[in-house]
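Before the break, one more example. Copy the sequence into your notebook; we will annotate it together after we see the structure.
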Amino acid sequence: MRREDVQPLLYRAADGLPEPDLADAAWTGGLEARRRQRRTIVIALLAVLVIAAVLAIGAGVSGSRNAELVPPPTTPSLPPGYVPPEGQIAGIDYWIAPPAGSERFLDRVYTPLGDRLEKPDDPEPLTEHPIENLAALVLEERNGRYDALLLGSDSTWARADLQLAPIDGGSPLSSGAVSPDGRTAAFPQPGELVTLDVVTAEVSRYPLPTRDLRSVAWTPDAQRVLVSGPGKAYRVQAREGDSGQQPVVAIPPSMNPASITAPFRIESNAVLRYQARGQWVVDSELRLPVRTWVGQTFSTYTMTARLFVADDLQQVPTKASQPQVVAAISTLRALPSSLLVLGETDRTSPAMDPQDLRQPGCCAVLGWYDDYQPVIQVRGWLLAWDVRSGKVQRITELAVDGVALGPGIRP
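Here is what the structure looks like once it is written out:
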């Protein structure tokens, strides 16, 4: 067969075959490509959903773990024994103290003073039994003179034979007699200041130009004593300090000797701050219904307290006496002040003694048990008032005429 005969034979063979439909083939190919594209999209979407689910589960687990690590927020809890205030006086929350005669039924604060503070029978001489941290100081009269009885933080007593002279016809014991470090006691005497070192039993005397001296109060550094009488006041360098300091410096006085205290004094409707040069500046103003202030001012790092006899109080009416109020005034703007009203005795109660009627002169602030509990002397008792909770507790029953407290009373 020749080469030129092949092509006609191929044409004749192709005539018997069916003619292909190219349009159908193209359509079929397009559908297949579209199916592959859809499968790809569906697979991608499923992958995205799976990843999102995994992330969500992980976030939930992490959140649960964080919840275990971070405690939920809680509201502040009230102090133990919290008592709601009765209301306000001059914009300050006030509480009413338990009535006179109920003191022995109050919860007790345990201190070295014991359940009843009374003079010891036969204390050892201070020269043989030094006191490391003075908790309380009382005076004992013998033949018209006074000796010091000293109670340490370990509840042991010692006697110092000082033979102190009376002042203003009475005991030379001032409520601010004990230094802040519990080492030294100070006594006003006619024309002088007398100090006693309770560790060494050393007695020092500082002559002053005024005989009528009635009150002493220490500065917070336990180096100086403020000694005052009616219209006269002095600052005495009672321990060795700056050699350039004068031993005795006159400072602005008050007609009420008990008002001269440091680092604060409450008087004339204001809290006054003591300055290093012996001056006082207004720290804050008060708008309290004060008839007269009683006793000394005692301070902590955040508060200062003093007692006043009030004018008639609408909030706490009385019939036979004027109400007396302990003012615990904050020296920090962020902390509130508080008042405790020593109301009138309920004479209708069988537990009350008519002699327990609280008249001016029966009560005063004597110091602080801790930073939030001023110690209050009422007739026959020492009480502690928690300014945070309003709760009043008994410290001890008093079988002595007067007492000055030291830091040894604190826990």
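Residues 22-69 form the longest helix (48 residues). The CA atoms of residues 116 and 397 lie 5 Å apart. Try to locate both features in your own notes.
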